[in-house]
Predict the 3D structure of the following.
Amino acid sequence: MALTTNKQMELITESKIREFDQLFRSIDDCIMMTMGEPDFGMPENVKEAAIKAIQADESHYSHSMGAMGVRQAITDFLEKRYQLSYDPEKEVVMTIGATEAIYAALLGVLNPGEKVIVPTPSFPLYKQATTVAYGEVVEVDTSDTGFILTPDRLHQVMKEQENVKAIVLNYPSNPTGVTYTREELTALAEAIKQYEMFVISDEIYSELTYGVEHVSIASFLPDQTILISGASKSYAMTGWRVGFVAAKAQWLPPIFKAHQTAVTTGVTVSYTAAEEAYRNSADDVERMRVEYEKRRDICVTALTGAGFSVPEPKGAFYVFAKIPAAFGTDDLAFCRELAKEGKVGMIPGRFFGAGGEGHVRMSFALSTELVQEAMNRVGKYVASK
């Protein structure tokens, strides 16, 4: 019998986002708006905490659920900021970034063949992780409802589908920057409450909102919600790989098992750094948030003037813009030509699922000067065609 590998992995593609990022990096003088990578350094007090941890030889295994200090800091933070109550001993597990949190959550709750509703455009990992867990993705195109899932659309999908186990929500959204108002979230939560399903709520960008209050759906559906977040985006700590899952105690054991069998435990020094971030870095987060909002405004103004259709991002650090009508809907060709001729790298919208074709995603997590220069180049490129 010939050797074979896991056929489920044949359904998984390598990251197209990173593929295009690498492609455009080979172009000389190309401004890269491809990755969600903060240009800020992490807060100085967090650096100091990490240095002290290294000097104190905090280089050994931590608890598999994560150090109690950081779990307590996170539950204190969630209580103070979003009025969410979790037991740090039984209802929080630290993960290697929000990425692993997504995998662990889906592996922990899905049985083969069970379905997961994913509103699109969305970050591709939700579909990939569901597939790895032998689940089935039900994509719901939200491009005609302002990139939010409405209660009516959810009810429609539930009438058409059987065996739905979970729904994934990501807000503020990667790639669109769109988020839910309290009123919209309240209505959606009332609709979800009518069904026996988990809510996998990825709120990694919750601290980066513009003119709107972030409200966690866990405040409405505490017994159904599996909350995912982390330190990467808000505290500019992407390389420290600090994520977490928070859920009611009865749901956490299978998620913890998925985590423990994959990584045993996370990075001890990262836990110390994250504890300091969650406890004492709110001012730094606000400083970065203000700068992101300025960059967002630069992008929206310039793109609108250049003929793009742009839903105003209310959170995160992405713009998801529909390319000018003169270019048609081939976002792949548009991105390739813009990078080659205009020297600006963006990601084709189709990589984010149904509703993304004809759009481009750009990250404004660059310096203000680079964002302004990128928008100048985009304007010149569009005008030249």
